[in-house]
């Protein structure tokens, strides 16, 4: 069971959180013209790295805040977590 | 011959004052408090316990603890029956019932042993090479035959009557194993102020200190262990756990431990759990799990009575039990000589065979001094004795130790073998530690750690007491100081132990000339040396291939005594060093874990929580039949007297169409949305326009996923300028809230909006039907419920009996309808008030089935249509999609496939005979007479009996639906062998213009 | 090649099995091959076999980073079925079922194909309806399927929870009688042995480290055992697809996730079908050895670790006891994990790529094992003919642009949501 540090609440066990996927995927700006390829890249295509992965977690059984985490997909080590408006320590 | 095999001296942990009776294979025996089932059986002279998996060979005990591969029994009876229990791990308790398994008709005479006679035909992987002809025989004959032979014990058929619990623990330092290094590290860490948990698998703390003759400070090893445990017990920062095995080491230093709580108790209280699963998040983990002795492979080395030398010693020293009275000790190292000395204490002189040419170790000298003849450079070639060892064929080895130079037979009643020691590295390896091979001890030891895990003592390859204690005290202090910074050092006491000479790298004896007895490596799975040879001969060279082809190490003991010997043998054949061969992966659990304990209390009705509306009891009292809606229980229909479901549903639905009905809609998801940007937010979330929704009005909305599929729908109303009340479907309530939070927090943090679930805060009651206005006007005389006063999609706040109530004029049934919302606590009160007043209007409650009927007739889409694969155009929601603004998922809607002509879209269906109900899940075809594959136009998503027209009606999603209206097609259900001619009609079957809801 | 049969087994028994030949050789890589298959898993081995057998292309190398059969073909729960709703999946997997039926004879290797039936349990009328939709679709496609009532299920698995206290009572189920299991390792070894006998080089411990692409055409691969020339490369490395695709500058609609499975200790035969629980994440079958083979859902976050965590095991076994409360006193013996190539619509990708001569076989999600024969067959065709076969024409990459996605579950592009 992973131990995840919610930037608002502190360290908690994984079963309080739900996963939100790749955090580097940026939703295209609303109302802006966008090519089909760029749109599909947003909806379907992923970098899927082995190693450091910037991802979203939701403290769903806690403060209900979404936040960012930097985690190794091969070892599951979590390097850092931060609020959405902060930058992860790289 | 009751307890004829007890030691002379009572220096162990057996309480002879407390006799315990038990039965094995129907015979009653007795042992004493402190015995395991294993020691109690051996003390009664019983070694034959069960039969092996493949060849059904008679088997007894190899070990004394978790390493035991052979001695598995079926324990207890009935719903408490338990298969595959290793007798060495069972503490004796009054009335215990055990029997042998994998044998028929009895363990002494087992028909399955014919496999052993034919074993030359059943080498590793034989089943891959045969049973292929003729083809049909595999399923009909061969496999059933093989399956009959499968398995060891028998699974119970009833639910488990026992109770299991979970516990979550945190500590600074978890110490796994209470041998010398474990006790030392626990003591050092605890004295330095760290929060310590010490876990010991066995019923007694002390590990090897309970069996080894050593001195620590001025105490014996056992005294020092007792003293240290007493010290630890006195400290408030220490938790000591016996009968507790840490079996898994997971990410982020999460370990999982299973505690046997009440199996050893004679009459546990009703609420005592049988086992407890502990999730322990440890700051640091000290792995002091010791080591396990290695067996030696020689001909027929699996007979009952052949066991590990250390096990024999522990049976004597701890359990006061003699494994035999005519022992042979067979070793490649010095440690087995301590077993010899134990026998000598009981006036039993063993025959000692040592593969080495000589040894001058202290114990060897001591044994020599006692006049025991040691046969160096010797080994065992073969053994005899069907149900128990009777004699051994022994001999001297040649210079290369590849052949015997001479052979002779000697009688014996047990063989105690020692092939040296394997550190128990499982937890370190599970933690991600890359192991390295230590050539000094010929075994893998932990190396580079990935988590906060430190191995000490024998688990770290440190086989002397001196080293173990030094490492334990040092590591215990170092790690604890990370947490406490107290710098309180506990000094390492002096210790005295015998000096050992090196083992010999020889684990497999040559075969006797001209004979090919099986030399087993993995006992439980019957994997012999010849199987490993065959695997390699056939090209299965990777150690993983060897494991899979031969099943080496894959039995219940997970190769605790066999893996390293297997590896060693592969390395010998391949002429590679062991680290080049590598090792297979160590996976949790270390020992098999009761599934019930992993699950805990979430069994039976508690599998998942049950959610009930505040009106639930009323429904129950009024004969409701319930249906699960996710976690919720909702009334499905309310049968009267002899009504069946169809009758009840038709009555309830018809009553809504003609009078008035009442329905509990509390389960709908409700979300409170507040903030100056709330209208803009809703405008982005929903496909339709929201900016201009007036205060006091509700609107139906549809939301999509980014891939364009309909995600959810519901009505949302504007309570004030910046305050909205959203409703969602029951099923998606939680997902919609997370979805909204995601967009607000991650995508558009600039929007000033807050969302909060209020599902539990409101109770919702739908009042639907032409008489609903009259009814509510009577109940709420002070508010204007006229079409002008409260128009369709309007809402009004009011009070009744001092309770706040909000009345929405919304409709799911297509009739004139209202939804009354009150605080949950008053839901039941409100419901009863409406029922009271409603009597005069023939009000009747209706359940989810009637609710479905009403919405299907109207062509309102719900979960069956919105199945995660529908874009709005598929389900007739075209009008809901704004062309002017952007919203979540809009860009996807322009995809070629979503707008193509042959896309499946929503229609209505009426059977031509106006009688035959179309089963949901039927498919629509043009021609029902063609052979498969039949081209499919689409499927029937929802069906009902239209109470309006008194005939069946269905909603279907079919190819190019719009242009199929008026056509005759077939609804087919090959599963039910039916084909129904149908006419395609509009999905809006009743009141297509929606006049009623606005009336 | 030695033929395996009961006669050869008996004959060899009298020479103490000293005369068995290697199942496959251990060759050094040649300088050039007509086709290189990357990945010595089930799909790669099957592809090489069908290239040789169906298309006469035998100058083929399989490059395997570790040992053959070590990926998901050796880590799955061995289930075979073609109980799919959408035509693209149904036709493809049904083609595979037909290959399974004769695979032991074809490969002269007993893969223990065991069509014992797979039952999907339903716990509500709505679920029965959804199963009816799928079952009817199967039947119309010529695939076997039957609906089972609660009573019929009680006959088959009387020890399932039919009690009053059951949280989600069993309403009925959908059964594919021809569904079943096969012995997973045997599939890899059987294909390997035959491919080897037809001239395919199986090269283990050979990691691909780069591709030689010139003017949009593949010319060779770089490996830990030197560079090898070729004009065609097939990628069969589900679980690691992105890592190789990165070397080809391809970004894919795939995420790697870990799926765990576990087995109980072996017990005497009890459960004679494959059973899936409809109210939670759990499925189970009993192996010919007697172990209950159990699985459920992804651990729930991107992962390249071939191991999982405890919460998912607990979650899956909790579902297990909800169906089979008598399993409580059995013991969990072993757990393991495999890396899934989770595609964004849950269906595989078998297609050509933007590079001439590079072919892609990936995105198998949880379902790759049963596809081994059909995947190998169509992929061999696609490589040999440089053209997709009708059976894999819908499994293209383009569908993520056109919208012709094949989403059996309807959960959308979030693979971690079960």
Structure description:
The complex is a heterotrimer of chains A (90), B (999) and C (418). Chain A contains one helix and six strands, in the order βββαβββ. Chain A has one helix at 36-43, and strands at 3-6, 10-13, 18-22, 52-58, 66-72, 78-83. A four-stranded antiparallel β-sheet of chain A has the order 3-4-5-6, with no helix packed on it. In chain A, a hairpin with a 7-residue loop joins strand 4 and strand 5 (66-72). By secondary structure, chain B is α+β, with helices and mostly antiparallel strands. Helix content of chain B is 23%, strand content 28%. Chain B has 25 helices and 51 strands. In chain B, strands 8, 9, 12, 13, 14, 15 and 28 form a seven-stranded mixed β-sheet that branches. Helices cover 28% and strands 26% of the residues of chain C. In chain C, strands 1, 2, 8, 9, 10, 11, 17 and 18 form an eight-stranded mixed β-sheet that branches. In chain C, strands 5-6-4-13-14-15-12-16 form an eight-stranded mixed β-sheet. Chain C has a two-stranded antiparallel sheet with strand order 3-7. The N and C termini of chain C lie far apart (45 Å). Chain C is globular and about 70 Å long. Chains in contact: A-B, A-C, B-C.
> Remind me, CATH topology of the largest domain in chain B?
FAD/NAD(P)-binding domain
Overall 3D shape of chain B:
elongated
How would you classify the helix and strand content of chain B by structural class? alpha+beta
**CATH architectural category of the largest domain in chain B:** 3-Layer(bba) Sandwich
- Poorly predicted spans of chain A: none
Radius of gyration of chain A, in angstroms, nearest whole number: 14 Å
Low-confidence stretches of chain B: none
What is the CATH top level name of the domain at 1-19 and 48-84 in chain A?
A: Alpha Beta
Q: Biggest β-sheet of chain B: count, sense, barrel?
A: 7 strands, mixed
Read across the widest sheet of chain A, the strand sequence of neighbours is: 3-4-5-6
Terminal residue distance of chain A: 24 Å
CATH evolutionary superfamily of the largest domain in chain B = FAD/NAD(P)-binding domain
Percentage of residues in helical conformation of chain A: under 10%
**Which shape of chain A, going by the Cα principal axes?**
globular
Roughly how many Å is the radius of gyration of chain B? 38 Å
Which architecture of the domain at 1-19 and 48-84 in chain A per CATH?
Answer: 2-Layer Sandwich
């Amino acid at each position: 069971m992973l131990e995840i540090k919610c930037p608002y609440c502190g360290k908690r066990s994984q079963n309080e959180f739900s996963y939100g996927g790749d955090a580097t995927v940026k939703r295209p700006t609303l109302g802006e013209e966008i090519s089909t390829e760029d749109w599909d890249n947003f909806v379907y295509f992923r970098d899927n790295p082995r190693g450091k992965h910037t991802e979203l977690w939701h403290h769903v059984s806690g403060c209900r805040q979404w936040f960012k985490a930097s985690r190794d997909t091969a070892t599951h080590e979590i390097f850092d977590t931060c609020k959405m408006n902060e930058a992860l320590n790289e | 011959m009751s307890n004829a095999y007890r030691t002379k001296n009572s220096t162990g942990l057996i309480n002879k004052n407390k006799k315990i009776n038990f039965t094995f294979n129907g015979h009653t025996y007795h042992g004493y408090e402190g015995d395991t089932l294993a020691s109690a059986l051996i003390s009664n002279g019983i070694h034959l316990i069960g039969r092996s998996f493949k060849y059904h060979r008679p088997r007894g005990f190899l070990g004394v603890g978790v390493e035991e591969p052979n001695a598995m029994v079926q324990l207890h009876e009935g719903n408490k029956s338990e298969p595959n229990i290793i007798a060495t791990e069972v503490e004796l308790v009054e009335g215990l019932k055990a029997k042998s398994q994998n044998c028929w008709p009895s363990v002494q005479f087992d028909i399955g042993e014919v496999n052993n006679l034919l074993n030359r035909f059943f080498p590793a992987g034989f089943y891959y090479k045969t049973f292929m002809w003729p083809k049909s025989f595999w399923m009909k004959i061969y496999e059933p035959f093989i399956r009959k032979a499968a398995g060891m014990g028998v699974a119970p058929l009833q639910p488990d009557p026992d109770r299991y619990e979970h516990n979550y623990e945190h500590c600074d330092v978890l110490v796994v194993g209470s041998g010398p290094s474990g006790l030392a590290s626990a003591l050092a860490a605890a004295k330095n102020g760290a929060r310590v948990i010490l876990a010991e698998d066995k019923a007694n703390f002390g590990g090897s200190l309970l069996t080894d003759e050593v001195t620590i400070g001025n105490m014996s090893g056992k005294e020092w262990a007792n003293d240290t445990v007493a010290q630890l017990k006195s400290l408030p920062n220490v938790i000591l756990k016996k009968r507790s095995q840490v079996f898994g080491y997971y990410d982020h230093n999460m370990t999982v431990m299973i505690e046997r709580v009440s199996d050893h108790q004679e009459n546990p209280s009703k609420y005592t759990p049988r086992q407890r699963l502990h999730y322990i998040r440890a700051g640091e983990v000290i792995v002091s799990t010791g080591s396990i002795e290695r067996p030696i492979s020689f001909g027929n080395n699996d007979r009952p009575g052949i066991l590990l030398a250390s096990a024999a010693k522990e049976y004597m020293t701890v359990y006061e039990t003699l494994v035999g009275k005519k022992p042979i000790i067979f070793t490649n190292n010095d440690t087995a000589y301590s077993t010899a000395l134990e026998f000598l204490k009981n006036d039993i002189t063993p025959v000692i065979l040592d593969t080495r040419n000589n040894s001058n170790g202290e114990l060897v000298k001591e044994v020599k001094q006692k006049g025991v003849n040691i046969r160096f450079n010797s080994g065992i070639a073969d053994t005899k004795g069907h149900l128990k060892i009777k004699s051994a064929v022994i001999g001297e080895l040649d210079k290369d130790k590849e052949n015997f130079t001479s052979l002779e037979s000697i009688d014996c009643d047990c063989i105690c073998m020692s092939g040296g020691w394997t550190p128990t590295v499982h937890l370190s390896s599970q933690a991600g530690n890359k192991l390295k091979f230590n050539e000094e001890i010929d075994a893998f030891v932990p190396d580079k750690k990935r988590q906060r895990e430190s191995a000490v003592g024998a688990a770290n390859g440190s086989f002397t007491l001196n080293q173990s204690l030094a490492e334990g005290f040092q590591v215990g202090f170092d790690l604890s100081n990370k947490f406490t910074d107290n710098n309180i050092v506990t000094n390492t006491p002096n210790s005295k132990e015998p000096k050992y000479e090196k083992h010999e790298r020889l684990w497999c004896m040559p075969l006797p000339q001209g004979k090919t007895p099986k030399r087993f490596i993995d006992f439980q799975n019957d994997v012999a040396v010849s199987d490993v040879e065959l695997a390699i001969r056939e090209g299965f060279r990777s150690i993983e291939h060897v494991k899979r082809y031969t099943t080496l190490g894959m039995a219940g003991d997970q190769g605790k005594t066999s893996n390293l010997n297997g590896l060693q043998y592969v390395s010998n054949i391949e002429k590679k060093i062991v680290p080049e061969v590598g090792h297979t992966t160590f996976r949790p659990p270390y020992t098999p874990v009761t599934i019930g304990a992993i699950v805990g209390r979430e069994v039976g009705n508690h599998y998942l929580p049950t959610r009930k509306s505040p009106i639930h009891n009323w429904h129950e009292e009024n004969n409701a039949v319930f249906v699960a809606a996710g976690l919720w229980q909702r009334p499905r229909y309310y049968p009267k007297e002899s009504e069946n479901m169809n009758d009840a549903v038709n009555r309830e639905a018809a009553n809504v169409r003609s009078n008035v009905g009442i329905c509990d809609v509390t389960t709908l998801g409700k979300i409170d949305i507040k903030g100056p940007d709330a209208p803009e937010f809703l405008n982005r979330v929903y496909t339709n326009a929201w900016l201009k929704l007036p205060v006091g009005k509700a609107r139906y909305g549809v939301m999509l996923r980014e891939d364009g599929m309909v995600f959810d729908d519901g009505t949302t109303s504007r309570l004030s300028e910046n305050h909205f009340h959203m409703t969602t479907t029951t099923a998606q309530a939680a997902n919609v809230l997370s979805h909204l939070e995601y967009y607000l927090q991650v995508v558009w943090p600039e929007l000033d909006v807050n969302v909060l679930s209020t599902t539990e805060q409101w109770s919702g009651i739908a009042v639907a039907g032409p008489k609903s206005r009259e009814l509510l006007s009577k109940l709420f005389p002070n508010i204007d419920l006229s079409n002008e006063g409260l128009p369709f999609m309007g809402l009004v706040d009011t009070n009744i009996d001092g309770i706040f109530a909000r009345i929405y004029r919304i409709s799911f049934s297509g009739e004139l309808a209202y939804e009354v919302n009150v605080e949950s606590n008053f839901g039941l009160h409100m419901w009863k008030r409406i029922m009271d007043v409603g009597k005069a209007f023939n009000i009747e409650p209706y359940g989810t089935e009637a609710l479905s009927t009403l919405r299907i007739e109207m062509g309102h889409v719900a979960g069956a249509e919105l199945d995660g694969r529908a874009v709005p155009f598929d389900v007739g929601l075209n009008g809901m999609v704004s062309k002017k603004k952007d919203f979540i998922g809009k860009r996807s809607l322009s995809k070629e496939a979503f707008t193509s002509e042959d896309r499946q879209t929503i229609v209505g269906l009426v059977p031509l005979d106006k009688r035959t109900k179309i089963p949901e899940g039927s498919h629509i075809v043009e021609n029902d007479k063609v052979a498969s594959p039949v081209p499919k136009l689409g499927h029937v998503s929802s069906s009902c009996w239209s109470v309006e027209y008194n005939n069946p009606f269905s909603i279907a999603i079919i190819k190019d639906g719009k242009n199929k209206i008026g056509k005759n097609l077939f609804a087919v259900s090959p599963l039910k062998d039916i084909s129904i001619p149908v006419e395609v009609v509009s999905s809006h079957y009743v009141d297509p213009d929606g006049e009623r809801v606005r009336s | 090649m030695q033929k395996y049969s009961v006669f050869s087994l008996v004959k060899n028994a009298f020479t103490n099995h000293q005369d068995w030949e290697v199942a496959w050789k251990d060759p050094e890589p040649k300088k050039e091959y007509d086709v290189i298959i990357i990945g010595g898993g089930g799909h790669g081995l099957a592809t090489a076999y069908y290239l040789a057998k169906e298309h006469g292309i035998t100058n083929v190398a399989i490059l395997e980073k570790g040992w053959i059969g070590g990926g998901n073909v050796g880590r799955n729960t061995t289930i075979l079925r073609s109980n799919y709703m959408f035509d693209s999946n149904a036709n493809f997997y049904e083609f595979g079922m037909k290959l399974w039926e004769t695979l032991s004879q074809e490969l002269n290797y007993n893969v223990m194909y065991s069509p014992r039936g797979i039952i999907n349990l339903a716990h509500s009328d709505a679920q029965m309806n959804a199963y009816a939709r799928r079952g009817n679709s199967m039947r119309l496609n010529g695939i076997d399927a039957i609906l089972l009532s609660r009573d019929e299920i009680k006959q088959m698995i009387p020890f399932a929870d039919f009690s009053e206290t059951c949280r989600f009572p069993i309403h009925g189920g959908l059964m594919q009688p021809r569904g079943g299991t096969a012995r997973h390792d045997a599939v890899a070894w059987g294909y390997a042995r035959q491919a080897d006998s037809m001239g395919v080089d199986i090269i283990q411990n050979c990691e691909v480290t780069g591709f030689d692409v010139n003017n949009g055409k593949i010319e060779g691969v770089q490996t830990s055992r030197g560079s090898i020339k070729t004009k065609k490369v097939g990628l069969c490395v589900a679980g690691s697809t992105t890592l190789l695709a990165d070397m080809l500058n391809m970004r894919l609609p795939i995420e790697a996730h870990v799926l765990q499975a576990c087995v109980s200790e072996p017990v005497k035969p009890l459960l004679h079908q494959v059973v899936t629980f409809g109210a939670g994440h759990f499925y189970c079958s009993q192996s010919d050895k007697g172990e209950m083979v159990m699985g459920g859902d992804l651990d729930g976050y991107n992962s390249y670790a071939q191991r999982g965590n405890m919460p998912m095991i607990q979650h899956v076994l909790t579902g297990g006891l909800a169906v089979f409360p008598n399993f409580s006193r059995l013991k969990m013996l072993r757990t393991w994990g495999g890396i899934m190539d989770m595609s964004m619509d849950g269906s595989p990708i078998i297609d050509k790529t933007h590079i001439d001569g590079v072919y892609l076989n990936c995105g198998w999600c949880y379902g790759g094992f049963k596809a081994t024969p059909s995947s190998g067959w169509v992929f061999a065709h696609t490589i040999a003919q440089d053209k997709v076969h009708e059976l894999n024409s819908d499994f293209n990459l383009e569908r993520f642009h056109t919208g012709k996605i094949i989403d059996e579950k309807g959960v959308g592009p979030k693979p971690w949501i079960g």
